[in-house]
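User: Some background: our group keeps a shared notebook of sequences we're curious about, and every so often someone picks one and asks for a predicted structure to add to the entry. Today it's my turn. The entry only has the sequence so far, pasted here. Could you supply the structure so I can complete it?
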Amino acid sequence: MERECINLYLKNVSVFNGHDEEVLPAQNILIEEGRFAKIGHTVPSSQNVHTLDMTGKFLMPGLIDAHFHAYASDLDFAKLDQLPQTYHALKGSELLSGALRRGFTTVRDVGGADYGLWQGLEDGLFTGPRLFYAGKALSQTGGHGDMRPPSLEPCACGSSGMLTKVVDGVDNIRAAAREELRRGASHIKVFVSGGISSPSDPIWSLQYSDPELEAVVDEVTRRGAYVVAHAYTPEAIARSVKAGIRSIEHANLITPEVAGEAQAAGAFVVPTLITYDSLGRYGHETGAPDTMIAKLDEVASKGLESIRICREAGVKIGFGTDLLGELHKFQRQEILLRSKVETPFQILNSATAVNAELMGLEREIGIIQEGTFADFLMLNTNPLQELSSLANGEAIEAVYQSGRRVG
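Assistant: Of course. Here's the predicted structure to add to the notebook entry:
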């Protein structure tokens, strides 16, 4: 199903373009064929343009969530893995639509989403953000993506959950990466440390050998894609960076020394503070298992400090949420949590231009400039001055994707 492109002429609008630290006043913007065609004091050259007088309004790029899970519809992963694919597809479309309504015009799914969900979006079967997905995240046996309880006997058929695939050995991890890339993945995720949602691996555990990590990076970069690493501890982050992994997720326990190594290697760090905050507040009542809550304290209190460390080291910091189940509704609250240690510009730059660069899409999304997709939020307040109004949604009057109003 082809989506109709509407040519728009936005008059006299103030613009935060995602990259510059100031809001540009009184801009005129021409949108043609779903992209920003002219920005400045331009006037439309055709009569076939819908004009909007936006005096007193503000524009900013659509938000980007670089750590999303469309198929994480429940906080209990054991339950999640027992649900049929049809349910996941329906629930995933609902979660994506909700993200778009909250102002996220692009999401990077780092475990779970697949070609079918992407194709449904492309065909207009439902409305949602631009979707870039990893397919199933790769885990070693007993790693963060291995959700089998210790009591379960191993199966010769292997193990694959809704969000993850268990795979061991250099040859097998190469084959697994190739398979996810064949199925349309734009990036591949691996687990390099323990995590809070899995039952059998402590946070401090170091996962995958150096040869395995180097093998997956080799496979993926030769395809023109990149690798994402779940890594909490300094040792796990350092190993990931050394192997050539581009995107470090969470990084709560990072040290200044390791942050310096990440900066020197050109790696990005994607914090996910809201998942710990919302789990701590509402985890029990929304079905989180006791093992998840018990592990939470090990990393939750270190999130803000990790951002301070990365900022001081000059690391490029992205923006993600990693929310599960009912907690997806708190997606924008990541903005407020980060405001305790970052400026409004730093936060919104992370959620737009930096995330676009991380994903290799800086010429397509995340910034309002001539040639990029016209994905933007129409606001009634200056986002650099009224950050809380953006976070709670009061400032958002409309959400546009490719120049079409979608929310």
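Suggested note for the entry: Residues 85-101 form the longest helix (17 residues). The domain at 63-331 is CATH 3.20.20.140 (TIM Barrel).
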